[in-house]
Amino acid sequence: MGARGAPSRRRQAGRRPRYLPTGSFPFLLLLLLLCIQLGGGQKKKENLLAEKVEQLMEWSSRRSVFRMNGDKFRKFIKAPPRNYSMIVMFTALQPQRQCSVCRLANEEYQILANSWRYSSAFCNKLFFSKVDYDEGTDIFQQLNINSAPTFMHFPPKGRPKRADTFDLQRIGFAAEQLAKWIADRTDVHIRVFRPPNYSGTIALALLVSLVGGLLYLRRNNLEFIYNKTGWAMVSLCIVFAMTSGQMWNHIRGPPYAHKNPHNGQVSYIHGSSQVQFVAESHIILVLNAAITMGMVLLNEAATSKGDVGKRRIICLVGLGLVVFFFSFLLSIFRSKYHGYPYSDLDFE
Q: Signal sequence span per UniProt (predicted)?
């Protein structure tokens, strides 16, 4: 048995052990180090993203719209990583800029941001911020922004596209329009909640009290109540005030006009259909009154039984008032509603 087992032991002793090929160990070591480095880099990105989101949530808990300067803009918007959308209003709210439109747009923007902040769907996927020109001039230059206010959407990945800039001149800056634009860009639907305004109720109560007091004082002589001309004049004044936008002025408090700080040009008509100046409402009121006067003269010329020559003159004057002032009114409408008369619509 011992003699037969010897060759087997010799064959086993003659076998060479199977080791890994020469140079494989450094390759595996390098691969391991690379995996560790990639894992560490990924972990670092996740930690950085978590810190950014935590900071943004903290700011949002204090203010629905937080301000940004150049450093914050580069850190939280331009620099990766980012898994959230950011809506930024580029504005100029400093008094020396005299941007009344910026103030009105900021009010609508605050309403929209508050509606999102206090909604049940609020999450860390969408944030609202603003950059003032005097605090971020370099950002305006970097993004080539030449006008304020401007609304932009910065998506979680990639650079903003053309549709990520809100078309304020065509649509206006109402909170509802901004919410619709955000829903198109982010799939986040915001229901706008406006704060209650009791100024109308108070004004109505004062008016009723005034009328009631006047009727009480004149309770022994109420013939004026049956004066048709008086009631017609009162009705016309109310119609002119409402159609010219006086109630909107009372609620929004717009400036009387806008003066361009660069060339000193004063604008009395605002270019957007969502905003107006006080002077604009006065112009509309005068135009409506002139058109109404023209219609009254036309009616007088048609129904009166006086001299034919005099009636013809009254008719021509009334027709001239209607044509001239209605054309002026239509030109203002075209300047505010761009695209009118909407010739690209297809009517069948």
A: 1-41
Structure pTM?
Answer: 0.55
Q: What are the start-end ranges of the E strands in the chain?
A: 65-67, 85-91, 126-132, 150-154, 258-259, 266-267
End-to-end CA distance of the chain: 110
Closest CA to 181 of 87, 265, 57: 87
Using DSSP's 3-state secondary structure scheme, residue 348 falls into: coil
Q: What is the pLDDT of residues 254-310, one digit of tens each?
A: 778 877 766 778 888 888 777 888 889 899 999 999 999 999 999 988 888 878 888
Distances in Å between the Cα of 306 and the Cα atoms of 292, 295, 301, 314 are 22, 18, 9, 11
Q: Please state whether 332 falls in left (phi above 0), alpha (psi between -120 and 50) or beta.
A: alpha
Task: Using CB atoms within 10 Å of the CB of residue 50, give its burial: 0 to 12 exposed, 13 to 18 middle, 19+ buried.
Answer: exposed
Query: Would you place residue 21 in the very low, low, confident or very high pLDDT band (cuts 50, 70, 90)?
Result: low
Specify the DSSP class assigned to residue 148.
Answer: S
Structure tokens at 269: 């008509």
